[in-house]
Amino acid sequence: MPKITRDQVRVPADVMPESRDEYIENFMKATRGTGRLMLFACDQKIEHLNKDFYGEGIDIADAEPQHLFEIGRQGVCGVLAGQRGLIAQYAADYPEINYLVKMNSKTNIVGGSQDDPYSPQLYDLDAVLAMREAGVNIVGIGYTIYLGSEYESTMMAEAGELIAQAHANGLLVVLWIYPRGKAVKAEKDPALIAGAAGVALCLGADFVKVNPPKPEDGSSPAEALKVATMASGRTGLVCAGGSTVDAETFLTQLYDQIHTGGAVGNATGRNIHQRSLDEAVRLTKAISAITLADYSVEDALDVFNGDEDFKL
């Protein structure tokens, strides 16, 4: 099981001396003392509206937003990521969860054929810091950049300023970076994914969430991902989970992303929350068994199937 000590946390130089201990504490919380990130992504209620939470193939429990927080409390996660308002409505009842506040969002109503994507910042960092001051267990913030959009410069500028402010206040930052827009011909091109990882590093993010690449040269997605993890340098790279697939397929992909591709964790939403509470909790434990404890796929499946429990 990978473990790190507080002394092993690499603190960026833009973290102010008075915030250094808080940054280290937040890093240890978010990574459960492993240096790896298990991010439970709960930001889709704006991004995808209600279609990710109600409909064919989705457990009815997911129609109620509290389902997300019950999974966060009963399962094994590093951080639960969602918009400020979502977290504000439920955090008092779920104080033990580590929260990451998503600072920007957009819906999917305006299609790419109408306009290039732009995800505007929804609130400033002071609103997040006020929540933290009020006692909400906020360990970091997140921001999405659509690389290749005609609005990328605005999103990069907003993200860069937020990262500087967040680090100065001891918070972690995770960037979601997706190549998308009329100028982008292949959103999952391995070179573009590696480019996105490098942009995250240059902006100063602690972690970057990207889509798994789709190579066309005969290599596997995990092999292609290795180039991106090299490009990300000291910014830890994790992959988006995508739409729901069976547990064995998902866990196998995750294992390969970490052990072949060099990823330092995962960022999973629909694959978790579209299931019943019991199944979702078991899947968070199976995912965390691979991400945080280096379990094999077979052993993680035992956790998912309820034949073995997993606790950190």
Automatic annotation (TrEMBL):
Keywords: Lyase, Schiff base. Its EC number is 4.1.2.13. The keyword Lyase applies. The active site is at residues 178, 209. It holds the Pfam family DeoC. InterPro entries: Aldolase_TIM (IPR013785), DeoC/FbaB/LacD_aldolase (IPR002915), DeoC/FbaB_aldolase (IPR050456), FbaB-like (IPR041720). One of its GO terms (molecular function) is fructose-bisphosphate aldolase activity. PANTHER family: FRUCTOSE-BISPHOSPHATE ALDOLASE CLASS 1. Belongs to the DeoC/FbaB aldolase family. FbaB subfamily. This is fructose-bisphosphate aldolase.
